[in-house]
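quick one before i forget lol
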Amino acid sequence: MVKLIVENKMIECKLVIRDKDGTLTDQDLSLLELAKARRNSVQKLVGERTTEFWEKTVGVDLKKEKIDHDGPLAIAPRREELLIAAAAFYLNCFPWSQARQLAQRAYDEADSSMKPPYGMVLLKGVRETLKQLKRHGLSSQLRRLILIGAQKKPSKP
C-alpha cells in the first residue's frame, strides 16, 4: 500500500482518481479554449450581436479572457448550458425551435473541433507526482484526483 501525505496527514491508499476540476490542470485555460471554440461556432451561426449576448449568459468575457467560475460554462452540465444558449438566441429574435437547433449545432461543431489536449496544462508538480504514483503501482485511470480519506468539495455536479 502506498502512503501519501496530504496537508501533513499520512493516508494509505490503493486508488487514485483524477479530474479536470483544477486539481491537476489549469482549469482556466481549458475553459477559455472551450469558450473560444463555442464562440466561433456561435458567431458563424447567429452573428456578432447574439454572440455577445451568449457570452454574457454563459459567463465569459473573451475580450478580457475572463471566466465566471460560478457561471454556466464553468459548472453547468452541457445539456443545461445548451438550454441557456438557446434562450440567449431566443431573446435575440430567433424562434424557440430554431434557437434550440442552432445552439445544438453550434455546440456540436465547437466541441468536435477541439483537439487534445483541449487547452489543458498540468499544474506544477503534477507530472512528477503521477510518475511517482505509477512507479509505486497506483492506478490513475479516471480524471479526478481523489486521495481516499481526503475531503475535497466537488466543483461541478
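fyi Residues 27-46 form the longest helix (20 residues).
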